[in-house]
Amino acid sequence: MIEVDHIDVAIGPVGILHDVSLRLAPGRLVTVIGANGAGKTTLLRTLSNIVSPRSGTIRFDGRPTAGIKPHLLARAGLVHVPQGRQIVPGLTVRDNLVIGADRAGLDAGTIAEGLEREFARFPVLKERQHILGGNLSGGEQQMLAVSRALMMRPKVLLLDEPSLGLAPQVVTTILKALRGLADDGLSVLLVEQLALLALDTADEAHVLQRGRVALSGPAAELRRDRAVIESYLG
Amino acid sequence: MTLLNFFQLLVSGIAMGAIYTLTAKGLFITHLATHRLNFGQGDFLMVGAFASIGMLTAGVPAPLAVLGVLVLMGVLGYLLERFAIRPLDRLGDRAGAYSWVLTTAGAALILQNIVELGFGKSAQYAPPLFSKTRDNVISILGVGIFFEEAAIIITAFIVVGAFYWFLFGSRWGKAVYAVAFNPEAASLFGIDVRGVVVLVFVLAALMAGISGVLVGPLVSVHPHMGLIFTIKALAVAAVGGFTNPVGILLGGLLFGVAEAFSNYWDSAFGDLYPLLFVMALLAVRPSGLFGERRADVR
Predict the structure, then answer these.
(1) What is the CA radius of gyration of chain B?
(2) How far apart are CA A1 and CA A182, in angstroms?
(3) Facing residues of A32 across strands?
(4) What is the torsional sign of CA B74, B80, B85, B91?
(5) What mean pLDDT do residues A154-163 have?
(6) Residue limits of the ABC transporter domain (chain A) (predicted)?
(7) What residue of A is the nearest CA neighbor of B191?
(8) Cβ neighbours of residue B185 closer than 8 Å, sequence gap 6 or more
(9) Are residues A104 and B175, on separate chains, in Cβ contact within 8 Å?
(10) Cβ contacts (< 8 Å) between A103 and chain B: which residues?
């Protein structure tokens, strides 16, 4: 679903990513782990075309994405759950859920179905659907952010540190949901700082270190390799 | 002052206040979504007033003239965004943080001069919009008020109501709130951020245009009338708290009424006192009468 080939990304004069390549196949959950400042968020922002790579190519669903505006990529099914959740505080939970699906051009029936599905996935959202998004707890907001993305019927889901600032049991709930989505055929790219939890959940993993892919492999293998954890910490 | 005088001043004040509210709504919506506003908002109002005078005196029926003004203002709003706002956004940090003040005020100067070329410098009155003659007086509860003023008040409130529906009821209003909160995140939910920016500038121009059409029969219209309307709209938006649409409505009505009474007591400096009051208010309450610090409040 996503093919990244040798991309270099710079913000201003500062190089952030160097020669990064990765593949994301349908139904796979791939994680990118790395320390703060390794370039994880920039990688996702590049995939969503918020920043453009200086060189290299990105393909989504077989087609190069260069020049496609972020909102059109999102409508086409490359959906990015940004860091910090970014729930619109002045809109209700329900409006937050519907806002993306509405833009993606889904009809009312599909949106209603989507709401049923997401309310079943995270029942707390159903209870709180008429509350303003800004009044949710961090964990509820993260569930809302994931559900808002799923409402858009994505082919690929990009997640930027969904664990940030959340209690451990909420993190487990979210990661379990992501695992289930991948098992149902969705392609998931999970960027995380909580390396062990991410490796437990993912099929494949890449370790990003100062903008380069330092290590890649099946998540279970990297999980056993102490060098991974150490290079990640170092 | 007799009781009759009091009610007539009140009605005149509400009519002008409703117009200030409409003009200030335009400032509010672009400020909400983009943190920018049109420093030529009053000049857009002036263009709306002249366009309406031009068409009405040429014999165009009022509904068609209003439609014509709306189309013209929509185009002007688009052009303003395209040439005074978008190039600065492209420059990013290389454009100064407040460059848009200069570009929008510059666009206003261009408009003033174009209108002066076409209509001359002298002041004009628009023909009444809703009645045949200017002095068509109706009686409400024994108080005689100008029919024109009453109709202007009703129209302005209908427009304000439509604006609320747009902001809180329509999908576009929700998109405006999402962009106001975080443009980058909004684009990730599939919202066309640039489209929303164009939309709010077009809306702001429409609000100014409608204000211009409505104000034409009430005040003298001349090519350089815009600045004082920009200042008053800014004052009203500041009293209302800039981010609080209900506050702006109340602020606008208060300001209009205060001005009507102030002009009754002192015809030479009547316009001054409400503005002094706003200054004093902002010194005590910088976020306005109804303002909140958060930009995302309803």
Answers:
(1) 19
(2) 13
(3) A191, A206
(4) positive
(5) 95
(6) 2-233
(7) A71
(8) A82, A86, B178
(9) no
(10) 175, 189-192
Q: Write out pLDDT tens, residues B150-167.
A: 888 999 999 999 998 998
**CATH topology (fold) of B3-284:** ABC transporter involved in vitamin B12 uptake, BtuC (1.10.3470)
Chain A neighbors of B193, CB-CB under 8 A? 71
Flag if A99 and B189 touch (Cβ within 8 Å).
yes
Q: How far is CA B7 from the centre of its chain?
A: 25
From B189, which residue of chain A is nearest by alpha-carbon distance?
A: A100
Give A228 to chain B, closest Cα distance, Å: 32
CB contact B91 to A (< 8 Å) = no
Contact yes or no for B42/B231 (Cβ under 8 A): yes
Residues in a beta bridge with A57:
A5
CA distance A193 to chain B (A): 21
Work out the burial of residue A69: count CB atoms within 10 Å of its CB; fewer than 13 is exposed, 13-18 middle, 19 or more buried.
middle
Question: What are the sequence ranges of the domains in chain B?
Answer: 3-284
Q: Which two tokens stand for residue A6?
A: 């040798």
Give the start-to-end residue ranges of the domains of chain A.
2-233
ipTM of the complex: 0.90
DSSP strands (E only) in chain A: 2-11, 14-24, 29-34, 55-60, 63-64, 78-81, 156-160, 187-192, 204-209, 212-218
| Interface A:B, Cβ pairs < 8 A | 70
Distance from CA of B181 to the nearest CA of A (A): 6
How many residues does this entry show for chain A?
A: 234
3-state helix, strand, coil in chain A (%, to 5): 40, 30, 30
> SS3 for B17?
helix
Q: Taken in order B51, B54, B59, B62, is the CA torsion positive or negative?
A: positive
Determine whether the interchain pair B188/A102 forms a contact, defined as Cβ–Cβ distance below 8 Å.
no
Query: Looking at chain B, which runs of residues are DSSP E strands?
Result: 137-140, 143-146
Q: Are B213 and B202 in contact (CB under 8 A)?
A: no
The residue type found at B53 is I
Angle between helices A138-151 and A93-103 (to 10 degrees): 30
Predicted local confidence at residue A232, as pLDDT: 64
Any residues with CB less than 8 A from the CB of B168 and at least 6 apart, and which?
B298
Query: What CA–CA distance (Å, rounded) separates A65 from B279?
Result: 52
Domain A2-233 CATH assignment equals 3.40.50.300: yes
Residue B16, token pair as written in the block: 């002008």
Interval B238-252: pLDDT, tens: 988 777 788 889 999
Closest approach of B205 to chain A, Cα-based (Å):
25
Task: Tell me chain A's radius of gyration from C-alpha atoms.
Answer: 17
Q: What is the pTM of this model?
A: 0.90
Q: CB of A60 within 8 A of CB of A219?
A: no
| B178/B55 Cα distance (integer angstroms) | 39
